[in-house]
Amino acid sequence: MERMKSRFPAAAVLAGLVLLGVGCSARAAAPAGGHASPVAASPAPPSPFTITVRYTAKSLGLDHPTDLTIGPDGNVYVTDRSQRVTVISPGGKVLRRWGKPGSKPGEFKFIGFDPSTPKYLEGKITAGPGGMVYVSDSGNARVQVFTPGGRFVRQFGSYGTGKGQFLHPFDLVVDGTENVYVADDVTQTFTKFSPAGNVIWTIEGSAATDPDLAGHFHVTSIDAHGRLVVTNDDINRVLYIDPNGHKVDVFSPSTSGSPSGHVCETTVDAAGTTYVSGCVTTGPTLVYDRAHRLIARWPGTQYSLLRSPGFGPNGEVFALATDGSILKLRITLPGA
Length: 336
Prior knowledge:
By secondary structure, the chain is mainly β. It has a single domain (40-331), classed as 6 Propeller (Neuraminidase). 0% of the residues lie in helices and 37% in strands. The protein contains no helices and 26 strands. It has strands at residues 26-27, 38-39, 49-55, 67-70, 76-80, 84-88, 94-98, 125-127, 133-137, 142-146, 152-156, 169-174, 180-184, 189-193, 199-204, 217-222, 228-232, 237-241, 247-251, 263-268, 274-278, 285-288, 294-298, 310-311, 317-320, 326-331. Strands 3-26-25-24 form a 4-stranded antiparallel beta sheet, with no helix packed on it. The protein has a 4-stranded antiparallel beta sheet with strand order 4-5-6-7, with no helix packed on it. A hairpin with a 4-residue loop joins strand 17 and strand 18 (237-241). Residues 1-37 have low confidence and may be disordered.
């Protein structure tokens, strides 16, 4: 399920990334006439997650699920290779499904980046505060909008490089007034659309003069301050972008332990804690507080996360693992 490695230029990796842990004890300089004093290695960050329930893809009737979101109703909405959306209750009951392969309204054509991993398709999904469900229909170059029950409402976007068009619509998120933010992973753009689907602004990563804004974007969360939490996986930076498209904060998470050396998936909870996962099928998920200090680390064993956790309205926490299972999690953080 690894993303296309060719998209990640080695020269783009920042030299100043914070490394996790210390493998060996260091020694301080010896005082005059004395011996070197050992310096204890930094303690490993605690593990934040406890898996309370695990639902296999087979038990839910899913075919290689690719993304999930939690709606304001607490239900989990999942896309998969069957070109459908499946709705699952917090208790793990399949409530309904909709969609089929095709290009008509209500149909999907989820496609992948890498021909060598045909099972991994891109069908990103999110839910707005009013309950509407938004699906990034990658192969049809559009975003489709549905009611929670699966009724098609509208769509926007078409294939191309013009204003409001897509080559490969990717991650998307919806704010409190139903504006939609969509990343295009081919054109390296990040666009804000009005609820009616009109372009409000676009960040063009391929033409950006700010290096933090030049690259490929991932976005799945908006924090309590209305800031979009965005990952630029070309340079391993997490950006906070305000509703007007301005970068207002940034930090560099660690890539230690990530086989690809890149971070992609980022979510944020109601307290402003940020959860960062890698770009491949194995590796850790890192947890940072509001000051961007590393406070916890999920090692990725036994289940690595394909997506960072999603947070529901009543304290529900679900995540999609790389083996296709859906994990219901309990999170315990230092000081909580």
